[in-house]
Amino acid sequence: MARDRATLAGAAAAGFLLAELLRAWLPTLVVVLAGSGTGAPTTLVAVAFGTLALAPLAGAVLGPVPPRLVWLLGATLLLGARLGLLLVAGGTPQVSVTTVGVAGGVLAVAGLAGGAVRGDVARLGLLAGAALSAAVLAVLGSVDLVWRGGVVGVLGTVAVIVVAGPPLLRATRALDGGPSAAAWPWGTVGPALLLLAALVAPSGRVAVATGWAPGRTAVTTVGVLLLTVVGGLLAARTGPLLAGTAGAALVLTGAAAAIDAAGVAAVVGQGVLAVGLGLGVVTGSRGGRTSARRRGVVAGGSLVTFGVLTFAAYAGPLLPLPFGTSTVLLTSAAAVAVAVLVSTLRGARIGREPSPPLLTRVAAVTVATALLLAAPASLRAVPAVDAPAADGTLRLVLANVHFGFDVDGRQRALELADLLADLDADLVALNEVDRGWFVSGTPDLLTTMAVGTGLDTVFGPAADEVWGNGLLTRLPVVEVERIPLPQGRDPMARAALAVVVEQVDGAPLGLVVTHLSNVDRQGDTRLPQAQTVAAAVARLAERGVPTLVAGDLNATPGAPAVQVLEELGLRRALPPGVDTFPDRAARAQIDHVLVPAGWDVVATDVLATGLSDHRVVVVDLARRPVTTAEEDTPAQDGAG
Predict the structure, then answer these.
(1) Domains along the chain with CATH numbers
(2) What is the per-residue pLDDT across 153-191, written as a single tens digit (0 to 9) for each?
(3) Closest to 296 measured CA to CA, from 119, 434, 527
């Protein structure tokens, strides 16, 4: 009983810290390494897979090397790296610290698999810790403690270290190994962690699917995540045949339902997937007479599989792969289901493992944790804002938010939200809005910006269901159209978000937010995309709706993609020579606001904030008084 309790608590602490560090490590590699120049993608792949490969290597030396020693080394690196993140401010030091931390995490998993006599208890703890970490993230508004400064960041990190440290150390004495726990169930751990992180954990998926308020979204996400523990408890109380079969079926059906993030059915699918992951990962028999080395190698191999699947899922926007993120995630679900069924068939021949007595306590702790986290989560809300000005003036802000990260690999979403609030804009056009990619730490940037500014939100998916363009608005939204753009040579899908808002006097105003391709050869990609945007503007103009265009067009003034919009009578708000990219030492104007006839540009500003790789564009507009002649021909005025 005492050994099982120590194993469970230690595994939960390791799962919590590893999940936190993965959410910091992956975007750090993407921003700092992949964005560093020639050869960067190769360096990223080498660092990522070299780190994850430590797990099966560590598993291979178990036996001569005691599992508890590998566990202790991994736990020490986990704690040290988590504390070390307080002392670095991005760049290469952050790459080093997060890499050491993830290396410690995978070593800890190998040692845990090799040393735990009760494999089901160890895997339940590991999964519960990862789910708890994601639930805390939801409560924090999808901005990890890792990225928070000041008192909250320091005290939060210290609290994590103080709470996680003792269980990690106590577990060392419990991991004595021996030929008792089965090896094959450990093969589910890696793919299951990816499904948990990519489909169950992101609160943004719930927000996209339902449009619920931030508080309700956060509470729902917490509840869905803790269903993984419920599934694990059910698996520990039932035989492998029932738990494994049910787990495989629920993983497949839940992933298929959740993957599109459309409607309440998708949220139900997230919950079904969570229960299935708990059933599938925890199920297994105690028998099998496997060695510590075999268990460690299987667990380590599953973490390498985790890396392969993660790379395949999120490399699509950068590489012309013949499959998309959804295909990879469904493949991951199938891999988990097959592994669980194999474990089930082999485990059923050996017999069920006795249910450990501590499960009743775990169930009580799970319920208490859900209630404890749900209380602060329910308080998240969008504040009220002032009404728009009644004099016909309008402030429009354009920001490419770089999925929330600055060029040094630090997540700056909270600071960017504060900046947008200070700018007091009526309309905020956003590019590169991430609402749940695991590779960038599963943020929900649009909700973060909404809570920070008090403005209403509209989301336009592009690369997939949780990545695209966004709009924050003080004005009422009366119409929304989401327009896919021709993909051409670009491996990333692009889109335009066309919104009609109602001005103070009831007159309609259109805004098209878009992000054109950075991949182009002799006009074969970007120009067709711009022509599709122009067609959307023209359709609104035919109805008498004057329309603004705002976005990162990846084209400079005079380029064909800009000219095709100017031919509609739209005028560039920024004068020539005012550059917007990159944020540091800008040398090109690629972020544009284009203004229709009937509107005057009163003032412009371009802000070097250090919060993204693009500068923030601010444009103040004033609507001209409508003359009698213009009243007779509203469509022509709208068309410019």
Answers:
(1) 2-377 (1.20.1250.20), 393-639 (3.60.10.10)
(2) 999 999 999 999 999 999 999 998 666 678 889 999 999
(3) 119
